[in-house]
Amino acid sequence: MAPWRGARRACPALDPKEIVRERKLQPSPSTTAAERVLEVRIPGANGFAGDQDEEWCEVLTGDELHRIRFHDYARIYDIPGLYEQIFHDTLECDSPQTVCSLLERVLRDHDVAPEGLSALELGAGNGMVGAELAERGVGKIVGVDILDEAAEAAARDRPGVYDDYKVIDLTERSEGDQDDLERANFNCLVTVAALGFGDIPPEAFAAAYDLIEPGGWIVFNIKEDFIQHDDDSGFGQMIRDALAGGALELVADHRYRHRLAVDGQPLHYVVLVARKRAPLPREA
Questions:
Q1: What is the pLDDT of residue 6?
Q2: Phi then psi for 74, rounded to 5 degrees?
Q3: How far is CA 273 from the centre of its chain?
Q4: Which of 146, 70, 114 is nearest to 219 (CA)?
Q5: Burial, 248: exposed, middle or buried (Cβ in 10 Å; 0-12, 13-18, 19+)?
Q6: Statement: the pTM of the whole predicted model exceeds 0.85
Q7: Residue 110 neighbours by CB under 8 Å, 6+ apart
Q8: CA 1 → CA 120, 227, 229, 240, 281, distances in Å?
């Protein structure tokens, strides 16, 4: 049993066959006329059998057909607009809006001005979440990702969203990066669709958490499977221990459809908004 209350929202039924699509890639605002038009193919119910972290699509560039795993973010970020085409347009990912909207509502309910937030976005990717935070008036946003391709995509597709964007591994950051991050006086940590599959290990999340001032806001989402007691990713136990021990004070939570799987079935995640009350418990 999960240690929080998940507000539930009904998800519409979908015929798995409807997810089989071959659509022209819509250029991102930064795409020039000289760049080639791509065709993206999602396998659908009859073309894929595997777990979420094994999902893939095919991208046609010229006469070449490339199979790209969804977790091969470097290749996806290299192609302008491809991330949005796969996840937002075709698989109907709602997480950037859902997570940031819940944070916005909580801040309003607690009479907190978003302009006063200094936010660290962990796993910032190509800036979709950063753009949502900026639209909601968050005062300062610093992105962190481990991929050079992510930083390049954010600068290309959403210039000006981030006050700073660092390509670092938070578990092995340099003294200079540590000084820069500490000077930012972060009072908010946001991470969306980045936890639980090995892209960001618990140790990196804990390192980001340590950078947040006491009383700061901790905002993240995670697939509901990873908060079960039989989860072996490490996040479920970390979150349960933090809530039970008082390190995290839960303010709001919501269970929702993150996106569709390639077979058309809904993937449900949980978003939590909490306050940092103490350091995360560490294993002895």
A1: 35
A2: -60, -45
A3: 14
A4: 114
A5: buried
A6: no
A7: 251
A8: 30, 9, 7, 10, 20
Residue 32: predicted pLDDT: 35
Instruction: Report domain extents, the chain.
Output: 16-90, 95-276
Q: Which two tokens stand for residue 1?
A: 């049993």
Rounded to whole angstroms, the Cα distance separating 185 from 120 reads 10
Which fold, 95-276?
Rossmann fold (3.40.50)
Residue 136 has pLDDT above 60, yes or no: yes
- Please state the φ and ψ torsions of residue 49, each to the nearest 5 degrees: -140, 110
Model confidence at 14: pLDDT above 60: no
Q: In the chain, which ranges are continuous DSSP H helix?
A: 73-77, 82-83, 95-109, 128-135, 148-157, 175-183, 202-210, 235-245
Q: Residue 98 contacts by C-beta under 8 Å, 6 or more apart in sequence?
A: 221, 254, 256, 271
Tokens at 117, concatenated: 């937030």
Q: What angle (nearest 5°) sits at the alpha carbon of residue 238, between those of residues 234 and 240?
A: 120
pLDDT over threshold 60, residue 15: no
